[in-house]
Design goal:
Layout lengths: L9 H4 L3 H24 L5 H21 L5 H16 L4 H16 L2 H12 L5 H18 L4 H10 L4 H13 L3 E8 L9 E8 L7 E6 L10 E2 L4 E3 L7 H11 L6 E6 L7 H6 L6 E6 L10 E2 L1 E10 L15 H13 L5 E2 L3 E2 L1 E9 L9 E10 L3 H14 L3 E8 L2 E2 L10 E2 L11 E6 L14 E3 H18 L3
Helix pairs in contact: 2-3, 2-5, 3-4, 3-5, 3-7, 4-5, 6-7, 8-10, 10-14
Bound molecules: 2-acetamido-2-deoxy-beta-D-glucopyranose (2 copies).
One 2-acetamido-2-deoxy-beta-D-glucopyranose (NAG) binds next to helix 14.
């Protein structure tokens, strides 16, 4: 369906509760009216009755897939059998069906109803046309919704705009399944005062499991609600980086009654403070299984990073008399071009080459003023200890009297590899270098890092459905026999 393909802009997502319930209620009333129509006109043509029932069935499926409740399969089944009764013309079935719908409509999320309603507005209101149009829409929509547990759990997590909501949901979800859950506060960063928490869960009496499934619940902005498209992918912020992986780990962990724990941190996308704080949990983990989008491969290593600021100072003056001042921008440009063309950065047979990005520049105030300040933020993906590259940059910068400031660095990490999986080298950074409580770390997940952080973040539904099993498989291989 076209409407569900359009990404919803964040401002539109925050629909007032009133609007949401008015919509749901109008739909509900319409449907109840239709049911009454069938109830009162027993001789109403069977095809009309049948389409009504099909609509109700699809609506129920939509409902069943839009929530993650333990007994939704059962509920779905009960409703289906009621619908069969309605279709056969049993009067008694109407009452209970109506009650069930009252509940359904309260639970269908706005994200599921929205595309449906916007298409309905454009439809022809002639009764029979409307009915068949409504049926096609609902049918199409409910087909798009996947009733596998991992997909619906992923969507539930992705549709939470804040990290804190996702944390609270995960903690409750685990507590309801007899996990010993610890919520660990993480200090807030800068002027962002939002409360931050890590979630750690272990089985009762097994507080230090040898395997810990680990990923992060924070995402990069902006919030994009989940949507399934015809191409077989689930879209939305965090579907692969990393809430879909969190959902898979949650499900996978249910298969272990001991030896396995779960750690979901915050701040992975910003300052890594969540993982730094997690070191204080005093865990002693043999295998840390970290979820990031690795396209179902297990990397043998992860490149390190080096983030530096280059600060150039000059003397400002009128641009007609440059000899009176000293430009801050000119030497910075020279240094940057020298850094970009430099050939002697470290190389590594496994990790490949050092990669440099000049990511941010600023300087000057106007075209007719010699600039007295300029700076550039640069970031290396390092394949050696970062200090080697740091020294090279400092040496070149000195030549141009440019001051350097390193604000973050970590070396590459060799990762634990399991036979039987395709492999590669991860050029991107993860939380792993900041974790100090494990012996071996393994990086694995579905989805591509190239889709993460984009407005088209996505994960293949096939891959997502298989992911919990893969995590179970990996943990089973690593658990001591
Ligand atoms: C629950 O978890 C906490 C924190 O990890 C731990 O100190 C405590 O011993 C655990 N309790 C049980 C019964 O496992
Ligand atoms: C996980 O546990 C469920 C329920 O006990 C079982 O049906 C399933 O086969 C298990 N999965 C694997 C991969 O062991």
């Amino acid at each position: 369906m076209k409407a569900s393909n359009t990404p919803v802009s964040p401002s539109k997502v925050i629909v007032s509760y009133r609007e949401k319930y008015v919509r749901a209620f109008v739909l509900y009333l319409l449907f109840v009216a239709l049911l009454f129509y069938v109830e009162y006109f027993h001789e109403s043509p069977r095809p009309v009755r049948r389409s009504l029932c099909k609509i109700s069935q699809s609506l129920t499926r939509l409902y069943a897939c839009s929530i993650d409740s333990g007994n939704r399969k059962q509920e779905h089944f009960t409703l289906s059998s009621k619908q069969e009764g309605v279709e056969a013309g049993e009067v008694g079935s109407f009452e209970s069906l109506r009650n069930s719908f009252a509940n359904s409509f309260k639970s269908i999320s706005d994200f599921h109803l929205k595309p449906l309603i916007s298409s309905l507005k454009k439809s022809n209101w002639k009764f029979i046309n409307w009915l068949s149009h409504f049926y096609t829409l609902v049918q199409k929509n409910s087909e798009l919704y996947d009733n596998s547990q991992v997909v619906s759990l992923t969507r539930t997590l992705v549709d939470m705009p804040t990290c804190l909501e996702a944390v609270a949901f995960v903690a409750d979800w685990l507590k309801a399944r007899d996990w010993n859950v610890t919520l660990q506060p993480v200090p807030s960063q800068g002027d962002n005062k939002e409360r931050r928490l890590n979630v750690f869960a272990s089985r009762l009496g097994d507080p230090n499991p040898s395997i810990v499934f680990c990923s992060h619940l924070d995402t990069v902005p902006p919030f994009i609600p989940s949507s399934v498209r015809d191409d077989g992918f689930l879209y939305g912020r965090g579907v692969c980086d990393a809430r879909g992986l969190v959902a898979s780990m949650l499900i996978a962990a249910q298969n272990f009654s001991r030896g396995v724990g779960l750690l979901f941190v915050t701040g992975e996308e910003t300052d890594h403070d969540g993982m730094k704080e997690a070191n204080k949990l005093r865990l002693d983990t043999e295998y840390l299984i970290v979820g990031e989008p690795t396209e179902n491969k297990i990397p043998i290593a992860q490149a390190g990073v080096l983030k530096m600021k280059l600060i150039s100072e000059g003397v400002s003056c009128h641009s007609a008399y440059p000899e009176r001042g000293k430009s801050a921008i000119v030497p910075l440009i020279k240094l940057l071009s020298e850094l970009l063309e430099f050939k002697d950065y470290p190389k590594d047979p496994e990790l490949g080459e050092t990669v440099l990005n000049v990511g941010l520049m600023s300087g000057g105030i106007a075209d007719n003023v010699i600039p007295d300040r300029a700076s550039a933020d640069i970031m290396f993906r390092v394949v050696s200890e970062p200090e080697i590259v740091e020294k090279m940059v400092e040496k070149l910068a000195k030549k141009y009297s440019i001051v350097t400031k390193t604000y973050s660095k970590n070396g590459p990490v060799r990762l634990y590899y399991l036979e039987g999986f395709p492999t590669f080298v991860a050029k991107y950074n993860t939380d792993i270098p900041y974790a100090k409580f494990y012996h071996k770390a393994l990086l694995f997940g579905a989805g591509s890092i190239l889709d993460a952080h984009t407005s088209q973040e996505r994960i293949s539904l096939d891959d997502l459905r298989k992911l919990p099993e893969s995590y179970i498989h990996i943990a089973n291989k690593l658990l001591p026999r």
